[in-house]
Amino acid sequence: MFVNQFLFLAAVLFCIGVYGVVARKNAVLMLMSIELILNSVNINLLTFALRNGSTDGHVFALYIIAVAAAEVGVGLGLVLLVYRNKKTISVDDLSEMRG
Amino acid sequence: MIAQNIGFWIIAIVMIVAALRVVTTNNVVHAALWLVVVLAGAAAQYILLAAEFVAVTQVLVYIGAVMVLFLFGTMLTRARIGTESDLNNSYKKLGIPVGLVMFAAMSVALVSSFGDEKLPQTASVVSTQEISDQIFGPYLLPFWALSFVLLAAVVGAIVLARKD
């Protein structure tokens, strides 16, 4: 197996995730796109762990999984709060901080 | 090696199709279910990369916990479950060139850096003991920091979501 086939898979997933973050208006769907990006990073880390024969990449991948879980928890708490106050979770409607 | 390659390409194509459905479907619940396919495919790729502990953690944390959170978030923020028309920005066409340019830049960098370099053929599976020796040895300080991040996230989520 080539190194590049895993790295290209991760690159494709990353770009799809970036497209999702740019194109989506619904806050929950934006969080899902961020999960795609984080998963592509994990594939990269584990590929390089195997290539270099070290376990550091595994540790970083586990840390990223934990941080992603925390991020989703706080993110969905924020989305719930926004929904309760504004009755919508479309990020285009949140313009209070626009000057 | 041949079997692993065939497995890789099948899983990779399924993952890419599912990821495209996540960012293009018009139904939030369907997007969450397509995301399950992507996450399960990622777990399978981790096993191909000789990382079985990370793969099991991926299944437990992502498919078990994070997906339940997403489905609850969908349920709590929307009255009806079904197709919606206004999930995308008005300028969503702008995302396509952004993604393609990023992919082109990454492709050039990957091809010029790694070319046709191969992964080691005789790699053994990384055992859970090796990973725990790393986490509770040189990486103990980040582990503590991560514990505080999780604690702060739990408390913050409760503070944000409670009613009063």
From TrEMBL, chain A:
One of its GO terms (molecular function) is oxidoreductase activity, acting on NAD(P)H. It holds the Pfam family Oxidored_q2. InterPro entries: NADH_UbQ_OxRdtase_chain4L/K (IPR001133), NUOK/Mnh_C1-like (IPR039428). GO terms for cellular component: NADH dehydrogenase complex. The chain crosses the membrane at residues 6-22, 29-48, 60-83. It is a multi-pass membrane protein. GO terms for biological process: ATP synthesis coupled electron transport. Its main location: membrane. It is found in: Membrane. Keywords: Membrane, Transmembrane, Transmembrane helix, Transport. HAMAP family: NDH1_NuoK. Belongs to the complex I subunit 4L family. This is Unannotated protein. It comes from freshwater metagenome.
UniProtKB/TrEMBL annotation, chain B:
The chain crosses the membrane at residues 6-24, 31-49, 55-73, 94-115, 135-161. Pfam families: Oxidored_q3. One of its GO terms (molecular function) is NADH dehydrogenase (ubiquinone) activity. Keywords: Membrane, Transmembrane, Transmembrane helix. InterPro entries: NADH_UbQ/plastoQ_OxRdtase_su6, Nuo/plastoQ_OxRdtase_6_NuoJ. PANTHER family: NADH-UBIQUINONE OXIDOREDUCTASE CHAIN 6 (PTHR33269:SF17). This is Unannotated protein.
